[in-house]
Amino acid sequence: xxxxxxxxxxxxxxxxxxxxxxxxxxxxxxxxxxxxxxxxxxxxxxxxxxxxxxxxxxxxxxxxxxxxxxxxxxxxxxxxxxxxxxxxxxxxxxxxxxxxxxxxxxxxxxxxxxxxxxxxxxxxxxxxxxxxxxxxxxxxxxxxxxxxxxxxxxxxxxxxxxxxxxxxxxxxxxxxxxxxxxxxxxxxxxxxxxxxxxxxxxxxxx
Length: 206
Known about the structure:
- The protein is mainly α and 206 residues long.
- It has 6 helices and no strands.
- The longest helix has 35 residues, at 171-205.
- The termini are close together.
């Protein structure tokens, strides 16, 4: 790790950890959605919306701190990228829940639960990794595993698309369900973007 003579603003570490913890909350709400009937989904969507707003607040706090700090713990562009990618995850998860409610989906296709399980695991790994930015230790396994999970998510997504286009669903239902599974795939991609940014930071700081 590079030796520094100047003090560094350390509150970023706590803010990144808080943002990642909020993502875990979002992933749990996604899991809750799976077992909920249509009458309970609107309330889950409200809680997810509140979590997404909390994520927005966390991101704005990071950007505000970045704009007011002379010395930062690592490169400014990496702080910006990391905060933005964490925010993207919450946005995609909230969008998926909202679409389920707005489209009045009665039953999600088989395979969506696997998508959400992958997101939940990635959320846990991300929350565990963020505090380690302070020391830049125990991060390699994190980004390797998140990349593996994203590859798994890709495979699940492709199988879901094949299922949706097998003729079982009418055209309108296919469009609705495809949009939902696509957004969940984007959430998986955003987790990978976070992991790749963490890897970039670690390499620069080594």
